[in-house]
């Protein structure tokens, strides 16, 4: 118990002084270290602040530069989109021209084919493979070739319109992405350290596999621009081709139509001339028929007129045969009566020209019938060519589309 309540040991004064000195030295040392730490911390804070501000400024500059790049390509894409949209609209008008031109060829083709069918109704010698028929056949061939060419060109135009629209879609999608990216970068550019709704993100610095390189980014839009230029140039070339085809086909059809019309006109004139000549011949035959009929009538009358004298002479001769005995004399009367009967008989026998005249009349009537039939053939041909065909062709024109 006595040891437990023993007083603590006492230090010497020198130990006390030494302890105080050590406290002062330790405090001074700690203070110096603290001051150095404060100074180093301030330097580090100042350096970090400068670095952060510089980095953030650099990022802001990069964002601004990126915005300029996006705006540049966005403007390029906008220009190409406007061009391809305009070109597609113009090409659609050319498509309409092709469709109208193609449709306008159908009626001339039907009419040309109808003309060929109508001309099959010509009869006799007029059913001839003349120049009109040759040119009509050529016109049908030209129309069919034009229709085939216009059809192929229309298909080509439709395909070009499809390609233009495909390019338009790619440009629109690229522009949509550029617009979204620009909006995001605009948002990022406006963010400051004091902006609300800023926060940490654990995945912000993670590199996504779907990221593309800047070179690929430029190439993507550049390819879209090049595709737009290519299709626009193809569309321009196609429009020039369509314009030339429409002009040339219209010219070819118009020229062939003029050739056919001229052939019809010449043929109608030829047939009319032939018909006029036949009508002249018919008039001559009719005149000759009338003359021959008068001749036959005169011949018959002449024969009839000789019957009385012949009967008188023959009656006298018969009566004088009954003279009696020596009175039955061959006197001058008998001689003259005999000669009279012979003369009349001879004259009547000479009237065999009546048969020849009647034969000639039959021949003339056959010729009349043949000429009348031939004139009807010509009238039928004229009706077909001048009325059915030429009037039908006048209702259709060849237009430029």
From TrEMBL:
<dbReference type="GO" id="GO:0060294">
    <property type="term" value="P:cilium movement involved in cell motility"/>
</dbReference>
<keyword id="KW-0175">Coiled coil</keyword>
<dbReference type="Pfam" id="PF03148">
    <property type="entry name" value="Tektin"/>
</dbReference>
<dbReference type="InterPro" id="IPR000435">
    <property type="entry name" value="Tektins"/>
</dbReference>
<dbReference type="GO" id="GO:0015630">
    <property type="term" value="C:microtubule cytoskeleton"/>
</dbReference>
<keyword id="KW-0966">Cell projection</keyword>
<keyword id="KW-0963">Cytoplasm</keyword>
<keyword id="KW-0282">Flagellum</keyword>
<dbReference type="InterPro" id="IPR048256">
    <property type="entry name" value="Tektin-like"/>
</dbReference>
<dbReference type="GO" id="GO:0005634">
    <property type="term" value="C:nucleus"/>
</dbReference>
<comment type="similarity">
    <text>Belongs to the tektin family.</text>
</comment>
<dbReference type="GO" id="GO:0060271">
    <property type="term" value="P:cilium assembly"/>
</dbReference>
<protein>
    <recommendedName>
        <fullName>Tektin</fullName>
    </recommendedName>
</protein>
<keyword id="KW-0206">Cytoskeleton</keyword>
<comment type="function">
    <text>Microtubule inner protein (MIP) part of the dynein-decorated doublet microtubules (DMTs) in cilia and flagellar axoneme. Forms filamentous polymers in the walls of ciliary and flagellar microtubules.</text>
</comment>
<comment type="subunit">
    <text>Microtubule inner protein component of sperm flagellar doublet microtubules.</text>
</comment>
<feature type="coiled-coil region">
    <location>
        <begin position="354"/>
        <end position="381"/>
    </location>
</feature>
<dbReference type="GO" id="GO:0005930">
    <property type="term" value="C:axoneme"/>
</dbReference>
<keyword id="KW-0969">Cilium</keyword>
């Amino acid at each position: 118990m006595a040891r437990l309540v023993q007083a603590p040991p006492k230090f010497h004064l020198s130990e006390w002084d030494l302890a105080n000195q050590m406290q002062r030295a330790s405090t001074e040392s700690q203070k110096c270290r603290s001051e150095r730490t404060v100074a180093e911390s301030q330097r580090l804070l100042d350096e970090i602040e400068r670095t952060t501000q510089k980095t953030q400024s650099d990022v802001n500059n990069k964002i601004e530069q990126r915005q300029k790049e996006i705006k540049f390509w966005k403007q390029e894409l906008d220009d190409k989109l406007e061009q391809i949209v305009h070109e597609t609209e113009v090409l659609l008008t050319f498509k309409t021209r092709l469709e109208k031109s193609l449709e306008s060829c159908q009626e001339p083709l039907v009419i040309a084919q109808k003309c060929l069918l109508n001309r099959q109704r010509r009869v006799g010698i007029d059913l001839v493979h003349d120049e009109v028929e040759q040119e009509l056949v050529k016109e049908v061939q030209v129309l069919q070739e034009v229709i085939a060419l216009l059809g192929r060109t229309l298909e080509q135009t439709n395909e070009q319109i499809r390609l233009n629209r495909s390019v338009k879609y790619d440009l629109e999608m690229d522009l949509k992405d550029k617009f979204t990216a620009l909006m995001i970068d605009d948002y990022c550019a406006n963010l400051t350290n004091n902006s609300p709704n800023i926060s940490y993100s654990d995945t912000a610095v993670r590199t996504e596999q779907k990221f593309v390189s800047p070179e690929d980014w430029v190439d993507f839009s550049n390819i879209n621009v090049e595709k737009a230029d290519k299709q626009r140039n193809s569309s321009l070339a196609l429009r020039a081709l369509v314009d030339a085809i429409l002009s040339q086909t219209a010219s070819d059809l118009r020229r062939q139509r003029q050739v056919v019309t001229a052939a019809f006109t010449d043929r109608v004139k030829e047939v009319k001339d032939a018909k006029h000549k036949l009508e002249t011949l018919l008039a001559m035959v009719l005149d000759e028929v009338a003359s021959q009929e008068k001749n036959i009538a005169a011949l018959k009358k002449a024969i009839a007129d000789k019957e009385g004298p012949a009967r008188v002479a023959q009656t006298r001769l018969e009566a004088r045969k009954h003279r009696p005995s020596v009175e039955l004399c061959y006197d001058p009367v008998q001689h003259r009566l005999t000669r009279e009967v012979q003369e009349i008989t001879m004259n009547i026998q000479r009237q065999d020209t009546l048969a020849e005249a009647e034969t000639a009349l039959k021949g003339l009537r056959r010729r009349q019938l043949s000429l009348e039939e031939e004139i009807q053939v010509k009238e039928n041909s004229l009706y077909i060519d001048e009325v059915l065909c030429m009037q039908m062709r006048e209702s259709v024109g060849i237009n430029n589309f």
